[in-house]
Amino acid sequence: MNGKFIGVGVGPGDPKLMTLKAYELVKEAAVLCYLTDSNGDSQAKTIALGAVGQLNPSTLELPVIMPMAKDRTLANAAYDEASVQISQQLAAGKDVLFLCEGDPLFFGSYSYLLERLQGDFTCEVVPGISSVNAAASALVAPLTTLTDSFAVVSGRHSDEFLRQTLSTYDSVVIMKAGQSRPRILAALEQTNRSNDAKYLEYIGRDQQVIEPDVAQLANEAGPYFSLFVITRRDKTTR
């Protein structure tokens, strides 16, 4: 019998936010797969190890080196190669756990492997706490209430799309803010939403940063793990 391909959300950064189900699966994993940078560092694995302490000695690790480049051809090649290695383990009857920061199906890299493997193998998902929810908790502020409209978008969208979203929705979370931070700051200014915005980096981690006044941010690129939370202060402007 083939094994199952299981996407496991490990949460935004704090190991204590990993679910009990994720903890139990990682603790006994036969095969553990995760993304790494060129140095072999993996945020998802670091979070998981912070929760379980150490892996089972018999666990086989399948690190996937992900090129940090805008060229999606390189990323697709990495996912293609990873899917082949994962398929071999699944065909051998072993369950393969793929660790994902946050939630596997919310801006998660698991989605790219899922589309490659779902037609041939049984796939399951263990949800995780997303950075959106963790950001609201860190701010101790509601994302949306009653009739408020709410949108989650990527900072990689066009300037016009960002402006339109900020003008349309009461609450907006802009993910993938790193390289796009100058453009996001400009869009906030152009739509008069700067006073509604707060900025966060590395939520739930030791290096967490919360900037409640985005005017204090340098007009330059920030780290990959960053986002903006925009909630309308003046409801009369809707």
Structure commentary:
The chain is elongated and about 60 Å long. The mean pLDDT is 94. The relative contact order is 0.15. 32% of the residues lie in helices and 21% in strands. The chain starts with a strand and ends in a 7-residue tail after the last strand. Strand 8 and strand 9 form a beta hairpin. The chain is of the alpha/beta class. It has seven helices and ten strands. The chain has a five-stranded parallel β-sheet with strand order 3-2-4-1-5, sandwiched between helices. It has a five-stranded mixed β-sheet with strand order 6-7-10-8-9, with helices on both faces. It has two domains: 5-129, 3-Layer(aba) Sandwich (Cobalt-precorrin-4 Transmethylase, domain 1); 132-237, Methyltransferase, Cobalt-precorrin-4 Transmethylase, Domain 2 (2-Layer Sandwich), CATH 3.30.950. It has helices at residues 20-27, 43-52, 72-91, 110-117, 131-139, 159-168, 181-190; strands at 5-9, 31-36, 60-65, 96-100, 123-126, 150-154, 171-175, 197-201, 209-211, 226-231.
Question: What's a concise summary of this model?
Answer:
The chain has 238 residues and is α/β, with parallel strands linked by helices.
